[in-house]
Each structure stands twice: as C-alpha cells, then as structure tokens.
Amino acid sequence: MASSLTKDSVRPGTPGSEKTFFGHPRGLATLFMTEMWERFSYYGMKALLPLYLVAPGGLHLSAATATAIYSVYVSLVYLLALPGGWFADRVLGPRKTVAVAGFVIMLGHLTLALPSSGTFFAGLGLVAIGSGLLKANISTMVGHLYDGPDDPRRDGGFTLFYIGINLGAFAAPLVIGTVGESVNWHLGFALAALGMALGLGQYLLGGRHLSSQSQVVPTPLSAEERKSTLTKAALWAGLAVVFYATIGFTGVYTLNWLLVPITLAGLIIPVLVIARIKRDKELDRADQSKMTAYIWFFVAAAVFWMIYDQGGSTVSLFADSSAKNTIFGWNFPVSWYQSVNPVMIMALAPVFAWAWLALARRGKEPSTAVKFAMGLVLIGASFFLFLAPLAIADGGHKAAAMWLVAIYFVQTIGELTLSPVGLSVTTKMAPAKYASQMMGVWFLAVTAGDATTGLLSIAGVDLNKTGIVALQAALAAVAGLAVWMYRSKVKELMGDVH
Predict the structure, then answer these.
(1) Complete DSSP assignment for 406-464
(2) pTM of the predicted protein model
C-alpha cells in the first residue's frame, strides 16, 4: 500500500532507499502508515469507549463513572509517554520499542474484544501502556530520517506525518464506531485490533527503510542500573499486588480504589516533574527564566485540554442521550461526531500555517502568549456554546446535531491556535539538559487536564449540568484573559525565544 505512494528520488543518498515518499525519505511512508493505523485503532476505540461504558449492552455504568474512566484512561496514555521515552533511551532504542508498543496495543484491543467485563480494564491498561511507548518514540524516528534540524524537508515531513494521524483519526469512528454501535461492541474493538495489526505488519516489513539511528540505544543502562531498576520495579509491583489483593479479599474494593490513585498521580507527577526541573541548580539564569515562562503555558494548556478532551466524553454522552443525531432525516451513529475534529484539522491546518506566515511577513503575527490566550478563549467559547443544546434538552427536546458540530468546530480552531504552537515553544524553550524530556513534559499538560476532569467525575460532579459547563467556560475565558494581560511579562521571561 505504501509503495504506491512513492516516486523516484529527487536527491541521491536519501536515507534507507533510492525511492522517496513525496520527495521525503522512504522510511516516512513506513512511519506514516504505522501512525495512521495506530491512530485508527486508538481513536476508534476511544470513540466507542464512553458509549460502551453507559450502554445497557455494555457495562451500563453511570455517565459520571464513564467520564471518570474515560478521563483517567486518556490521562494515563499521556502520562506513560514520559517513561515510554525513557524506556527507548535506556533499554531498547526507538525502533524496537515501537514494535513492542504495536504488539501491546494490539493485544489490548483483542482483550477488549473479549465478551467479558472482567478483562475490560486489563485491555484498557494494555492499550494505555502501548500507546505511551509508541507516542514518545515514533515522532523521534521521523526526525531521524533527516539530516539534522536544518534539513529543508524536515518540516514538510512532519506535516505529512501529521496528515497520517488525522487520516486514521477521521476514518476510525466511521468504521469502528459504526460496527461497534450498530453490530456488536466487541466486534468494534476487534476491528481496532485489526487496524493495529495492519500497522504493525507494515512497520516490520518496511523497517529496512528506517534510519539506522533509530536502532541505537542512546544512553543504555549499566548492569548495575539495570539491576537496580528491575529491583525497584518488582518492589513497587509487589506492593501494588499485595495492596489490591488485601482490599479485594476484605470486600471493600470499588472501582475508585483504582481510579483515584491514577487520577492523583496524573495531577501530582506533572507538578513534581516541573518542580524538579525548576529547582535544578545547573540551569543558568536564562534557562530558569524560560522555565518560569513555560509554567504559564503549561497551566494554560492543562485548562485547555481539561475542556477539549470532554468532546469525547461529556459532549459525546450528551449526544447519546439528548441530541437528534440526524442530518436531513438520516440517522448516524453517535461515534461519528469524533470524525468532525480530524477532518476540520486537515482542512484548516494549512490555512492557519499560511495565515501565521502572512502575518509574520507584515510584522503582525501574534506572540506565543497571545495565541495561547486565543486558544483558551475559544475553548471557553465552545462550552458557552454548549449551554444552548443543554438548555434545549432541559426543556424536554432533543438538540439538533449541528449544535454539537459547531462545538467541535470552535474547539478545532482553538486547538490550532494552541496545540502546534505549544509543541513548537516547548522545543524552543527546553534547557539543553532536558531537550529530550521536554516533549514528555508537554504531554503532561494533557495528563493534568484530563486528571482534573476525572477527579471531578469521581467526586460525583455532573459535568453535563448547565452550571458546571458555564463554570468551566468562564474559567477558560478568565485564564485566557490573564495570559493576555500578562503577555508582556511572559514575553520578557522567554528571553531570546520568539
């Protein structure tokens, strides 16, 4: 499949092959297809997850519990990206780690496909572990295909790679969501496993086109470090087994015994990681100043993702219970709403890229802080917009599907003003000592946001209530206003980063 997208090389010496992928190294086709199929499996399962959790034919849980599980799961995926990067750097190297990740993800989806509620959470855990291992390393491998950061093809290569992400994310709810909702939930999860199997198969077959650098373990563990790490891991695993076995045998175990520790970890670990970097006395004054500025962006991103990721839980569950999921009289599965964002990303991302460049030529491009403020105001606006369908449902009517499409549209615009900018500023502001770790720190903002949503749901807060939705919208708007008001101070702290 990937080979049909290649053409003759336009420059000799392209890493891995004499063929190229739209003028890029041939290995990009391998990674493009791997990521596309992995995102197909991940987003398909994610679109089904909250609906399966509340469905009478699924686990038949309350909306609050479903939102808590969904939020904790997503937060765990991004939390595990940090140890996933460490595992590749110290143990297997990126290439082998991604192969292991693909197998673990496939096994997780197959476990979800089993018609047993007893294995469901084990399947979710496996998918989260595999996704954390893969997310941290496949982008690194894309970078390895190019001749350093100054290779003129590099930005275009990552753009193509990003298209692969969104192609998979767009197709997944349409295929997996339809089968899961209309035919059988577990068959839908099985299709997610098939998608990952296809991605893993072509990754292994196309591995010869990847850079040899991806096979290298950058800083391998010494024999002493390996022994110490295994001992500590075994100790913590043993403590967890003893603890949960004890509360299980005493009959006091509930789902919250699992959800609450993970949720608290999702809030505490990001704080500890940033605090550790901030306290590092080896950082010079300029780096310390940049890290202070970065905290502004990190907190802003956490607030953004707290609301944004509810598009897959709070908004989706509202659509399931209180929306007319029809267009021109034609009914469609609720999971299809999750295809709105990726198709809009593919349509609007080039427009935003062009707009930023056009404004930059005129010296009018907004600063990073202003872009973040715009993202926060827009995500707040999406939840102010959510108040309209909530009011319609409170009146005993079903809200029109276009209300929800409008919410996802506003959220997508907000994403494009904040997410790519956040990735860029993270690489620019990272102290040299933490250059390889800072992308994991950025992902921790997603962890913190989703963990907050999970904690609210565990506490019994109904996130589909008008007052709570309005409060979150106001919080985002106020946060956006604060970032905008202090934009000059933040810019000063950023030093030579623009």
Answers:
(1) HHHHHHHHHHHHHHHHHHHHHHHH--GGGTTTHHHHHHHHHHHHHHHHHHHHHTT--TT
(2) 0.89
